[in-house]
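Each field is set out as follows.
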Amino acid sequence: MITATNVILPGYPTPSSQVHSPTYTAAPQAHEFRLAHNPRLNPNRPSREFVKQTRNGGVSLRLAGQSDHVTLPVYGFGASVEGTLEVHKRDGITSVEVQIEGTLMMEEVAEGGATNCKLFLIKTILWVKDRIYEAPCPRSLPFSLPLPTTFSDGGKTYPLPPSHESHLSGLPGFHAKVDYSISAIAVKPHTLPHAVKSSLLGGGDWAISTPFEYLPRTCPSCPLPPPLVSGQWGIIETSQWKVFPTLIHANQGGHDIMVKFYLPASRIFCMHEPIPFHIMFSSSAISLAAFIPLGPMVTKSLKTQHTKIQLLRQTAVDVRNASILGTRADIWRVDCIGEGAFRHAGDGAHWVAFSGDIYISPDIKVGGFRAGGFSAKDCVVLSMTPPDLSKSPFKELRLTVPVRLVTDSYVGDGSSTSGGPPSISSSDEVGAFPEFSYNP
């Protein structure tokens, strides 16, 4: 026999008002860091669709994972082109296929002609009509096509280049373009051959195509260093900054000026952030005084500057992708994509120092790359150009330092501000003409 009794459970203390349940965020806070990160699981991935429809309304192409108000679909490093092909008018359709392709087009005006290089071509058949059951084409056909990360040309393998277009007017000149697209077709032949052949041509076919942008994201693997400081004898150097020494030669027996130009040692910079620099001039007091009119000026007007620090981009095209007697036969253009602004940082009896930042044009969307005979590379150029060389106490100066531009900022765990791009190691020395790569 079981009897019921009143059981009094133990009480629990009332939680203090100072005690709170832990909070969770998608990105680490200031006192936290990531132990592991999978960019494919990024919760901030866009969920909108890019939709394009044929004029007759027979077929619609819906591409997933796009941001609002995009004019073209955008994909990054190692991404997959995913979406759905919707077939609204299914009568007579015997097969449906989809393909993605990348093309490098180069044309030299009045020089080496033109060439087209197929970077890749990936296609798949989504549906073929069964001749026995005669089932109609499905209304919705999902697909997923992974983008390659490299391509081969002339026996060499290169990272897949970003979407980019450049041209140089005049003679000689060039026009070069890296282009990507996705195409789909609903085939409606009069008779179905025994072996179904993939084709983008056909009298009654319904085809739809749209270009897309390939913009691989990269980020530095180390942060920018703290700024240098000046001491009694000039700038105090650290291992986090690399110094590039040079001389400004004097005319008519004067004293030369020693120049030390400092950039962060990695020389890898986010294209959306200023590039910091330091510079110091050392010589006799007389030479430094004579150099003042030609030296850096703390002013907003770049037209009055004789000493400049600029970020330059060289874009080159060589249709033949070869050399003649050991010399490259390419055609190139050089654009200024960033300008430096100076701040006085200190001086002494025999030295004067400046610091500053190079502000990059907001029009820059891609870093440097090389794809066969089409290349773009960046460098920081320190120059001093006297207004009249015949009367100047000093000769002109030009110092070139190769750098790399990446799309994203550094974050403490090595990922980007928006999560997931491959990083470029700062331990890789940037050569005289750097090859740009995207690490998996």
